Amino acid sequence: MRIFPPLSISALRVLMVWSVVQLQNVSASCPQCSENADCYNSTHCICKDGFWTGPDSRIIIEPHVKCEDIDECQLGIPVCKDVSYCKNKIGTYICSCVVNYRIFNWVAGIVDIENPECYDETAVALIAYQSLGKYLNGSFFNKEGIQEVKLNSLIVSGAIHSEVKPVLSEPVLLTLQNTQPIDPRAEHICVHWEGSEEGGSWSTKGCSHMHTNDSYTTCKCFHLSSFAVLMALSLEEDSVLSALSVITYVGLSLSLLCLFLAAVTFLLCRPIQNISTTLHLQLSICLFLADLLFLTGINRTEPKILCSLIAGMLHYLYLASFMWMFLEGLHLFLTVRNLKVANYSSSGRFKKRFMYPVGYGIPAFIVTVSAITGHENYGTHTQVMTFKAIVQLFVLGCSWGIGLFMVFEFGKTVRLIIAYLFTIINVLQGVLIFVVHCLLNRQVRMEYKKWFHKMQKSAEIESTEMSYSTTHTKMVSSTPKSRYGLI
C-alpha cells in the first residue's frame, strides 16, 4: 500500500478545487450552448443523445468544442434483424427492410396490409363462416338506443401467421357482401368479436364504417379478428320516422279531399271558368293523382315491374305538377306586367293551345328519356323516396326553400325541425290550394251559397212531396167502401 506524504495530499486537494473553480468559471452562468447541445444543471453544456465531443465523452469543457453525430451503425450499437439493415441518421438510426423482401398474401385483392416492420415469411388468411351467424347474431350487440339489430354479412376471421406479433400501422379494409336487403332507415355498424369472461360480444372498438351500397359494405379496422356487419335501427330515429309517416298519411288524405273539392269547383263553377281556373284545375288534378298514387303504391316494391311502373308514374305526375305551377307563375307575371287586373273574367294573352303541350308534353318527354337512358333507376323504395324529396323542392311552392336546406348538413335538432316543416307544408299543399283559390275567393263563396240554397230547396221540395205522398196514402186507405166497392 502506497502512503502519500501530507504535502502531496494537500497539493492534490488544491488541484481538485482549482479544477472545479475553473469549470465553474467557464460555465458558471451556463453560456449559450452550441448546436446539438443542452445546458445541464445550470453549470455546463452537454451533448444531446446521439451526439458526442469524442469517444465516450459528451461534456463540453471548452466553448469552441462542438457536438458531432455518433454513427451507431459503424459502431455496431443497434441490433437489426437479418432481413433489415442499419441506416444512420443525424442523432439517431433506423432499421430499414430489404427492398426485395416480400410479405406473402393469400388473399391478394381482398385485404391489403401495409407493414413497416420486417418480419419473417408471413401468411395472411381470411376465413368466412357460412352458418356461424345463426348463433353469433345481432343479439350479442348491446348499445343504448338501438333496436332490431340484424347480422347483415357473413362472419369473416382474419389472421396473420408470423413469429413476431404484427402491429398494423395502417387499417385493414374489408369489403363484405350484404346478406339482406338494405333498409334506408337503418344504421350499418362494423364490429368485431371481443371475447370476455361472460363469453364475448360484438364490439365497435377499432373498427369503423366507411361505405354501404345495395350489395356491399366496406369497413376499416386497425386489427385482425372476426368481423361482421350489423344493421340496426335507432329507437329515436324510428319514432321520428313514425311521426313523420303519420303526418304524411293524415296530411295527404286531407289534401286529397281538398283537391277533389277544388277540382269539382273549378270544373262545375261556370261563372269563374277562365285561364286561371284552367291552370288551377290541371294542377289540382295532377297533385290529386300523384298524392293518391303515393299513398297507395309507395310501399309496393314487389314485383319489380309494378314498382318501376309506380316510380315512373310518380315521376311524371310530379313533373307535370311542377310544369303547371310554372305556368301559373308565368300567367301571373304576364298579368302584372301588362297592368291587368287579375280576376276570373280576364283571359289575358295566355293561349290554351300552348298550355297543354307544355304542361303534359314536357314531363312526358323527360320521363321517356329517363326511362330509356336509365330505366334501372326506377324501382327501389329508396330511389322513389329520394326522388319525391328532390322533386318536391320545385313542385310545392311554399316548401322549396325549406327542402333546399335538407340537402345541407346541419345539427340533429335543426334537421329534425326542417324535416317536420318540410313534411307538414308538403302534404298540406292540396289544403292550401282549396283554401286560397276557393274559400278565400268571393265569387266562389257566392257560388257555394247558390249551390247550398239549391240543395236546401231540393231537400225541402223532396221532403214536402214525401209528406204529401204519405198523407194522401193514409187518406185513401181510411176511405169506407160499400160491399160492392161503391160509397
TrEMBL record:
<dbReference type="InterPro" id="IPR017983">
    <property type="entry name" value="GPCR_2_secretin-like_CS"/>
</dbReference>
<feature type="transmembrane region" description="Helical">
    <location>
        <begin position="354"/>
        <end position="373"/>
    </location>
</feature>
<keyword id="KW-1003">Cell membrane</keyword>
<dbReference type="InterPro" id="IPR001881">
    <property type="entry name" value="EGF-like_Ca-bd_dom"/>
</dbReference>
<dbReference type="InterPro" id="IPR000832">
    <property type="entry name" value="GPCR_2_secretin-like"/>
</dbReference>
<keyword id="KW-1133">Transmembrane helix</keyword>
<keyword id="KW-0812">Transmembrane</keyword>
<dbReference type="GO" id="GO:0005886">
    <property type="term" value="C:plasma membrane"/>
</dbReference>
<keyword id="KW-1015">Disulfide bond</keyword>
<keyword id="KW-0677">Repeat</keyword>
<feature type="transmembrane region" description="Helical">
    <location>
        <begin position="305"/>
        <end position="327"/>
    </location>
</feature>
<comment type="similarity">
    <text>Belongs to the G-protein coupled receptor 2 family. Adhesion G-protein coupled receptor (ADGR) subfamily.</text>
</comment>
<dbReference type="GO" id="GO:0007166">
    <property type="term" value="P:cell surface receptor signaling pathway"/>
</dbReference>
<keyword id="KW-0675">Receptor</keyword>
<feature type="transmembrane region" description="Helical">
    <location>
        <begin position="246"/>
        <end position="267"/>
    </location>
</feature>
<dbReference type="InterPro" id="IPR046338">
    <property type="entry name" value="GAIN_dom_sf"/>
</dbReference>
<feature type="domain" description="G-protein coupled receptors family 2 profile 2">
    <location>
        <begin position="244"/>
        <end position="369"/>
    </location>
</feature>
<keyword id="KW-0106">Calcium</keyword>
<dbReference type="InterPro" id="IPR017981">
    <property type="entry name" value="GPCR_2-like_7TM"/>
</dbReference>
<feature type="transmembrane region" description="Helical">
    <location>
        <begin position="385"/>
        <end position="408"/>
    </location>
</feature>
<dbReference type="InterPro" id="IPR000203">
    <property type="entry name" value="GPS"/>
</dbReference>
<keyword id="KW-0245">EGF-like domain</keyword>
<dbReference type="GO" id="GO:0004930">
    <property type="term" value="F:G protein-coupled receptor activity"/>
</dbReference>
<dbReference type="Pfam" id="PF07645">
    <property type="entry name" value="EGF_CA"/>
</dbReference>
<dbReference type="Pfam" id="PF00002">
    <property type="entry name" value="7tm_2"/>
</dbReference>
<keyword id="KW-0732">Signal</keyword>
<dbReference type="Pfam" id="PF01825">
    <property type="entry name" value="GPS"/>
</dbReference>
<dbReference type="InterPro" id="IPR049883">
    <property type="entry name" value="NOTCH1_EGF-like"/>
</dbReference>
<protein>
    <submittedName>
        <fullName>Adhesion G protein-coupled receptor E4</fullName>
    </submittedName>
</protein>
<keyword id="KW-0807">Transducer</keyword>
<dbReference type="GO" id="GO:0005509">
    <property type="term" value="F:calcium ion binding"/>
</dbReference>
<dbReference type="GO" id="GO:0009986">
    <property type="term" value="C:cell surface"/>
</dbReference>
<feature type="domain" description="GAIN-B">
    <location>
        <begin position="71"/>
        <end position="237"/>
    </location>
</feature>
<dbReference type="InterPro" id="IPR018097">
    <property type="entry name" value="EGF_Ca-bd_CS"/>
</dbReference>
<dbReference type="InterPro" id="IPR001740">
    <property type="entry name" value="GPCR_2_EMR1-like_rcpt"/>
</dbReference>
<dbReference type="InterPro" id="IPR057244">
    <property type="entry name" value="GAIN_B"/>
</dbReference>
<keyword id="KW-0472">Membrane</keyword>
<keyword id="KW-0325">Glycoprotein</keyword>
<dbReference type="GO" id="GO:0007189">
    <property type="term" value="P:adenylate cyclase-activating G protein-coupled receptor signaling pathway"/>
</dbReference>
<keyword id="KW-0297">G-protein coupled receptor</keyword>
<feature type="signal peptide">
    <location>
        <begin position="1"/>
        <end position="28"/>
    </location>
</feature>
<feature type="transmembrane region" description="Helical">
    <location>
        <begin position="414"/>
        <end position="440"/>
    </location>
</feature>
